[in-house]
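thought: fold this chain, then report.
action: predict
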Amino acid sequence: MNKKSDDRLLNWLDERFNISPFLDFMKHKQVPIHKHSVWYYMGGVALFLFMVQVLTGILLLLYYQPGVDSSYESIRFIVTKVNFGWLIRSLHSWSANLLVLFIFIHMFSTFFTGAFKNPRELTWLSGFILLALALGFGFSGYLLPWNELAFFATKVGTDITGAVPLVGKAIKIFLRGSEDVTGGTLLRFYAFHVAIIPAIFTFVLSVHLLFIQRQGMHEPDFYKKLPREKQKTIAFFPDFFLKDILLWLIVLNILLFLAVFFPWDIGIKADPFASAPQGIRPEWYFMFMFQTLKLLPAHILFIEGEIVGVLMFGVGGVAWMLLPFWAGKINAQIRTRVLTTLGLLVVAFILVMTIIGYVM
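observation:
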């Protein structure tokens, strides 16, 4: 297609959809270049992994049949009979884990570079909601193969939600659909995983991307203090966009490597009447919470240790979500030092508890 054809196509689209303002915006949008610029790409990688999740998830839905007597069998059919079914399933599972990982990386890079501050409070808030929804994706999807590990891990996870004071039992029954993990729970998690959470995630993601496009890339404080002539930038389109695409291709190659050489195991079919096997653990992104609850004593003062742990994580999660609204009240002279120390402690806690959970 030559330049005249390109111009005719653009003019044709512009007459019908008025895309000129969008094209002008893309041409003039600039991205700051500095020593922390690499963190700008983490959100794009998370977006790419979400697209992989959607595509592979749709392909799996063509064969997956939810039900106590069909879920495990349909997964086994996909892995053993469908052409490249094993690859699609492994890509879906690995990309789910990497999606959570890169959202965590994106969140902490946003925290340490101060990109949550005024006027980006709602951008941070929507990003936190996306992290919570990604964890919901992982939790709801874990049960769908209806294998032994998924069944008992889901039982443990929903039991923990039952420890929430006042509303815990109602939440547990809402998640399970009854007092126990049954076929009804499987169908309920299937609805969460393929319809409810994706719909909410897509909406919040659209809002999050809109906020970022309207506000532009965050400029760290040290960058703003540089003389104007030393503030280097690159055009978002095509320069930054092409680098983003290149990183997506690298991540795709990593995904393919993991899927081919470390295919996701289907495990043993769940038997609700069997005793729980040894070493039942949640997915790695829940491990730090699971291990912390295990280490707490049975009672702290007059309250059950598990309830104290659940309350602690609940309060901590809400405080982290509302970070931009209370961090600004800290004295400006010590704010950076206090927040950096807080962030390092949170990261260290997550890493240490996760490692202990797999070692012990």
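thought: worth noting. The mean pLDDT is 91.
final: tokens above.
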